[in-house]
Amino acid sequence: MPPSEVSHSVSSFWISAARWLVHASVSAAASTIAAASLHYNLALDADDIEAFRALLDGVSDDYQIVDALTESLPEVRYPRKPGHRPAPEDNPYNAWYVLSEVQGSEGGALAGLSVALKDNVCLAGVPMMNGASTLEGYMPEIDATLVTRMLDAGAVIQGKAQCEYFCVSGSSHTSALGPVRNPHDETRSAGGSSSGCSALVAAGLVDVAIGADQGESVRIPAAYAGFVGMKATHGLVPYTGVMPVEMTLDHAGIMSGTVRDNARVLEVVAGADGLDPRQVGLPEKRDYTAGLDAGCAGLRIPLIREGFDWENSEPDVDKAVRAAAAHYAELGATVDEISLPLHRKGHAIWSPIAVEGTVRQLEGQNYGSNWKGLYLSSLMRAQRDWRDNAALFPEDMKSVLLAAHYFGTRYHGQYCAKAQNLVRQLKRAYETVLADYDVLLMPTVPLQAPKLPEPGCDAATFVGRALEMNANTAPFNATGLPALSVPCAKRNGLPVGMMLVGQDFSEALLYRAAAAFEAAHDWKTL
Known about the structure:
- The chain has a nine-stranded mixed beta sheet with strand order 1-3-2-6-8-7-12-13-11, sandwiched between helices.
- It has helices spanning 3-40, 46-68, 145-152, 195-202, 219-225, 259-269, 315-330, 343-363, 377-383, 395-411, 414-434, 459-467, 475-479, 507-520; strands spanning 96-103, 114-118, 156-161, 181-182, 185-189, 208-213, 228-231, 251-256, 300-304, 334-338, 440-443, 483-491, 494-501.
- Helix 7 (315-330) links the parallel strand 9 (300-304) and strand 10 (334-338).
- The protein is of the alpha+beta class.
């Protein structure tokens, strides 16, 4: 064939191919619009569909412009490697997900402090799966704000700790990588959802861990495994770069062996980062260590009667926390027992927000929609096909999905909305008491660390063990008030935790009260 004919033949092929691609694109767009018409009950006919297809071409041009632009993300400043998942013999309690040491600056307020990160906290270039098989293989490209701040202050990140599947469980048996075991008794729960962090801190394998707390997930581990767990005021610690569950409940929290280490870390990580719009009205002064030696003389501490004697309360827990309150009186605090009836309804108010909000976050493109925060589009891409493997979800996650679908479709979000309105009433109830007192006191959880469920147990046992313990903790996620769990006794060879709660931004006072108890008593002997 002469070259001119070859050239003409090739040109004809590409012209035909281009026409086919255009036709295919038009057909695909029309099919998509037709599907949208059915989804939204728009009743569009063929002429309507063609008209709207042409109108959407302009919008498509805008999307192409956005696609070509480069988004600005926080700088990653400290070198690291992807790390590795340790062998079972090198992974006590099945607590680590990935070991990857990141050295911070040479000096600073946290110089040499060893830190584990819950595996929903972004560490750039290091795998993150949030306990979920559907997210395995994802690697974020940023460090969470609190990670950068700790590294700038000289901390050493040791790696990522296991957590529960999508952070839904308060126990430690739901991760796709198997249960995390309690160092005090390896047949028992380490608490969740910051389960790996719990075991690592309790065993002294790290000084501090960063967890996340939406209903319990820092404080329940602290109670079950015997260490200090702080959920600060909502927004005080930026949540930027931490995988969300429900934005009004999300808190990043600090887990440590001592009150002082906890306060040291909060001084470093607290404060606005300009990327988390939940950070409103933050105090200018954030000195949490200065008052640690002030003692508790003169503090007014009420026991909240409704925090005791739940249906699943264990007598040893209630007695130990009441005894701890008596120790406060011996140290010079004024201790009263008072009634706060609405606390008994706090968990119920939290529940629709947690159930429906969690699933809305998972279902939609909601890792930041309708707000001015930092969006991590790579995480959204990694999560978009979760339904393909939803059959692999653990039973507690399935139960949340089913409940959210049932109540959400039946009532169209009205109970979730009503619960958010009731949160203000609940918060006022606590604040009314705190107008006359300094620190509320109650058991962190009603029970001690329970046995891990047997593999293959029935759904009721699996779900019950995952969600049985947060009646006292959940109300303070909904209200956003700061809450601190401190070990106060040892019973049956296991820790008991008491929870101290204060006004917004009263973290320094909570640390002062906790430090006074810690200095006067070794909880392991009480």
